[in-house]
Design a protein that fits this description.
The protein has 121 residues and is mainly alpha-helical. The protein folds into 2 domains: 89 residues, 434 Repressor (Amino-terminal Domain), CATH 1.10.260; 31 residues, no CATH class. It has 8 helices and no strands.
């Protein structure tokens, strides 16, 4: 069977994989070494271009300290997180979020006000 594009389920699983990996500060290379694949393969998994086997997905879940159900989107929390995951695919979003976390509350408010003002323009 020839696949013409990434399957929506594979893209969603890849997004959850990437989010969990980044949340733990794990590099693609570290995950790749654990899984016995190249970091390019991990990139393809995260984009949903290549499908992960059940065994590979279970191994990734264990390494990333999460459940297989969470990566599959079958737990209650992951369904709540779907809108957040979609926003994290925007270029620079995860970096901006990490930097935002480092700001003081006053500077966070200022950054939000700036972003809102930029949207309105």
């Amino acid at each position: 069977m020839t696949r013409l594009g990434a399957d929506a389920a594979d893209v969603a699983i890849g997004a959850r994989l990437r989010t969990q990996r980044r949340a733990l500060g794990v590099t693609q290379l570290a995950l790749a070494e654990h899984l016995g694949v190249t970091f390019q393969q991990v990139q393809k998994y995260e984009k949903g271009v290549n499908r992960m086997s059940a065994t590979m997905l279970a191994s990734a879940a264990k390494f990333l300290k999460t459940s297989l159900a969470a990566l599959l989107g079958e737990d209650d929390e992951s369904s709540v997180a779907e809108p957040i995951l979609k926003n994290l695919h925007v270029g620079g979003a995860t970096e901006l979020l990490a930097l935002y976390r480092e700001l003081s509350p006053r500077r966070r408010r200022a950054l939000l006000e700036l972003a809102r003002a930029m949207i309105e323009d």
